[in-house]
Structure formats: structure tokens, C-alpha cells
Amino acid sequence: MSDNNTKALKSGSWYIVSSFLVRGMALITTPIFSRLLSKEQYGDYSNFHSWLNIITIVVTMRMEASLISAKFDYKDDLPKYNRSMIALLTVVTVIWTAVLNIFSGFFTTQMGISLFYANMIMVYSFFHAVINIFQMNERYHYRYKKSVMVALIVAFSTTLTSILMVLFMKDRLTGRVVGSILPVAAIGLALVFVFFRRKRSIDVSSWPYTLRIAIPYVPHLLSLSVLNSVDRIMITRICGSADNALYTIAYSCGHMVNILMTAINSAYAPWLGDKLHDGEEHEVRRFSKYYMIGFSLLAVGLMLLAPEILRIMGPKSYQAAKYVMPPVATGCVCQFLYTQYVNLEQLKKKTAGMAFASVAAALLNYILNAIFIPKFGYVAAAYTTLAGYLFLLIAHMFLVHRIGLGKVYDYRFVLGLAAVMIGVCGGVSLLYTHTPARYGAVAVLAAALGYIVWRNRTIAKKLVKRIIK
């Protein structure tokens, strides 16, 4: 293996590890904040965080994505390009902040948050983008140590500061908001000085280059963010903050399987590429069935153990949220299934259709939320999100068929598995009042999952080794 490949492998591996640690930190602290904050405060923070995710994309446009090509086009003076990008980011943020404050009545009413919180989002957007620019530069030069260090410092400092401010501030919601943003602002400000400490010159002529690359990303990223966030925003507006708290904690628990999905896919995708390169589509087709069933069984186990998981993640008042877990976990399975098709699209570099699919799914989710949340309450949002992921599955299956890789996976099997999971989703909810039957189902699932792993132990060992490496 060449020196560059070794550096790339080490850098990528550490980046994945740090990402898991950051996501794990958010999951671990859920039981803490669900008990420190009232249900209304927890729901209000969820609404705030949903808007933060959406507005950050609109304001920053993920400008750091332009570094993918800028490292070649501006290789003679990449530091100057970075300074120019931060200058452009400053101008854009100032403009959006001015618009926000001039039309504050409109924005705060639509968002359901105070003007102070809205300005905090602007502060976060700018400094978080600076951190991303720094990390992206370090990754492209395979200097993973600083990138990982910054990621971990941000994760631990925001967690610790948030807990302390919630404990000692009279307004605990403000403590949670400020505690999550203050460390990001401090670290981002320090990195601004790092970028400008030696030279301060910028190149305004590079701004159109940055915008040409960044702007097309916005619809795709914004659509995915809306798909993941609009349900909580609409629940807050229609049902109230308390119901949003119930939905949010169940949604967080249900998405525990996503952390596992990301870990497994980081090993599975390279294996998939190797098998397709070697012309062994039959091996992928055979193993993928066990792979998909195994992941689905884990999701079913999560559904069955929802009451126990919620006892850990929140106080007793959150138990009503258990009925959100089945559709959320089923949605994660649909997300897992369509990720298998996304892997194929990325391997063939045919990703143009992804943006259209994401926009359509987000629009579908919004329409369904508007129809069903007022009629059936916050639980309906979990089913509308499931519908969005099911739409994405069908859309990506179509896109993969278009690029000539439709035979890699068994379409009938995948659709059949999705249909079975939707049926199981409805059945599990009925077992929440029959604890012995529920535990019996968990035992059967554990045995079935163990059999699948044993049956595919050779490939399983290879995937585990890839994950560990």
C-alpha cells in the first residue's frame, strides 16, 4: 500500500471513530437532559435544534464542500482560498442576520422561537462552518489528529457546558441553548485567528467559484434536513412542546440503529465494491438477503424493548412515547434498505437523481404531516416519516435500475421485507400490554439473529475485521 493510501486509510478511520463518539455522546446525554428539563422545555429545545439544522444549511450552504475541487484548482494558495471562503461566509451571515432582525416578527412567529434564540442560531451557523472548513482541510492533508481532537473537544465541551448551565441557570432552556452554542463559538473564533494569524489577504474573485459549487448542494441537503426535522417543527406548532418532547425522545431512541447502520455500512460498502469489481454479483445478492434480514431483526428487537429503553432514556412521563418507536424503527429499516442502493449509485458516480428524490420525499413528508398530525396527533409524524423513507427506497431502486445495476439486489425480496416490517410495526404495538409475550418474541428474535450470524460467519468475520480496522 502506498504512503498516501496508508495516510488516507488512517485519516478516514479516525474520522469515522470520532463521528461515532460524537453521535454516541448525544445519545448518552439524552437521559440526563430529559430529566433536567421539563417536558415543555425538552420539546422547545428539540424545535430550536430542528430549526438550527435547517437554517445552518441555508446560511452556510456547506461552503466547505467546495474544498473537494478547490484543493486542486487553488493548490498554489489554498490557505488564501480558505480565508476568502471565511470572508464570504461572514458577508452571507451578516446579510441573513440583518434580514432576520429586520423581519423578526415574521421569522420568530414562523419558527416558534424568540429573537435571541434565532440570533444564537446565526452565531452557531458561522462558527460551526469555520470548524468544518478547518476539519475539511486537515482531512484533505491526512492530518487526522487535529481534526479528531477538535471534534472531540467540541462534543465534550458542549455537553459539559450545557449540563452546567442547565443546572445553574434559572431559565434551564436558555442554559441548554447557550451551553450548546457557546463552546462552538469559542472554538470557531480561535480557528478564525488560526486562519488569519500569518496572512490576511483574500481573493474576492474566488467567491463565484465557491458559490457555483456550494449552491447546488443546498436543495439536496436542505431536503434531507427537512425530512428529518419538519415533523418536530410541525408537532410543536400543532400539538405543543410537550408532545414534541415525547416524539423527540422516542425518535432519538429509534435512531440508535442508525449508529449501528453507519458502522456496518462503512465496512460493507468497500466489500460491495470489491465484489462488484470481481464480477461476483451472485455473492452480493445471496449475502445481502441475510444482511437485510439481520438488520431488520435488530430493529424489531428495538421495537419490542421500547418500554424498557424509554425507562432508561427518560422519566416515567415519557412512557406514552413507546408507540412512536415501531414506525420510527421501521423507517430506519427503510433508510437502511435504500442506503444499499445509494451505495451502488455512489460506486457508479451516478448521484444526480439523489437530490430530486430527497426533495420529493421532503415535500411528501410535509404534506402528510399537514394532513395527519392535526387529526391523529404527534404519533402520526412517525408514520409520515416512514412514508418518506419508503418513498426514497422505491425512488433509489428505480434510479439503480436506470444505471443498469438492478440485478445486484433482489427487488422482490427487498419490497417484501419492507412490507413485512410495516406489518410487524403494527403488530408490535399490540404487544406493549402483554409483557410475557413480548419477552418471548425477543428471545425468538435473538435466536434467529444468532442463526443468521452463524450461517454467514465467514463473511461476518470479514466485516467485523473491516469495522475494527
Task: Please specify the SSE layout and strand pairing.
Blueprint lengths: L2 H26 L1 H7 L2 H22 L6 H7 L4 H25 L1 H8 L3 H26 L3 H25 L3 H25 L10 H8 L2 H22 L2 H14 L1 H22 L3 H24 L1 H8 L11 H23 L4 H25 L2 H24 L8 H21 L3 H21 L1 H12 L1
Number of helices: 21
| N/C terminus separation | 15 Å
- Summarize the helix and strand pattern as letters: HHHHHHHHHHHHHHHHHHHHH
Count of spatially separate domains = 2
- How many strands? 0
Cα shape? globular
**What does the largest sheet look like?**
none
How helical, in percent, are the residues?
A: over 70%
Radius of gyration: 23 Å
What features would you describe in this structure?
The chain folds into two domains: 3-215, no CATH class; 223-468, no CATH class. Helices cover 84% and strands 0% of the residues. The protein has helices at 3-28, 30-36, 39-60, 67-73, 78-102, 104-111, 115-140, 144-168, 172-196, 207-214, 217-238, 241-254, 256-277, 281-304, 306-313, 325-347, 352-376, 379-402, 411-431, 435-455, 457-468. With 469 residues, it is mainly α. The longest helix is centred in the first third of the chain and has 26 residues, at 3-28. Helix 3 runs parallel beside helix 9 and helix 17 (352-376) packs antiparallel against helix 18 (379-402). The protein contains 21 helices and no strands.
List key phrases describing it.
469 residues, mainly alpha, 2 domains, 0% strand
TL;DR of this structure?
The protein is mostly helical and 469 residues long. The chain is 84% helix and 0% strand.
